[in-house]
């Protein structure tokens, strides 16, 4: 290092470059936290929408069955419902349900499985 002349104050070029590198490294770390947080927020939002669509499907099925429905008339189990292009989720998102008869202790119940698929962001 050079000898400073009679009380001059300041930083050398090397000190400025080292300080700049330290600040840049810290800033890059903080930026990556924000980017990762943004991605996770998007994933959580999509999962929330998917749960809402599944709940909507279950509510629709529940409302289509009256309380006096007999076992054989409960639900039409011959098809699966698929609804492509739902709003709020990415293109390529599908929602479907399957209904199966399940024997539980001699009682025939309906098992409803709702699946919401969407492409990764």
Give a concise summary.
43% of the residues lie in helices and 20% in strands. It contains 1 helix and 3 strands, in the order H-E-E-E. It is rod-shaped and about 100 Å long.
In terms of topology, how is this protein built?
Elements: H1 13-64, E1 81-82, E2 94-104, E3 107-117
Antiparallel strand pairs: 1-2, 2-3
Q: How would you describe the overall organization of this protein?
A:
- The chain is of the alpha+beta class and about 120 residues long.
- It has one domain (about 15-115).
- It is about 45% helix and about 20% strand.
- It has 1 helix and 3 strands.
- The protein has one helix spanning about 15-65; strands spanning about 80, 95-105, 105-115.
- It has a 3-stranded antiparallel β-sheet.
- The relative contact order is 0.12.
Structural class: alpha+beta
Q: The biggest beta sheet, please?
A: 3 strands, antiparallel
Cα end-to-end separation: 53 Å
Number of strands: 3
Please count the helical segments.
Answer: 1
User: On the 0-100 scale, what is the average pLDDT?
Assistant: 77
Trace the largest sheet across and list its strands.
Answer: 1-2-3
Cα radius of gyration in angstroms: 30 Å
- Approximate strand percentage: 15-25%
Poorly predicted regions are 68-81
Q: How many structural units, i.e. domains?
A: 1
Order of helices and strands: HEEE
Q: What global shape is seen?
A: rod-shaped
Share of helix among residues? Answer: 40-55%
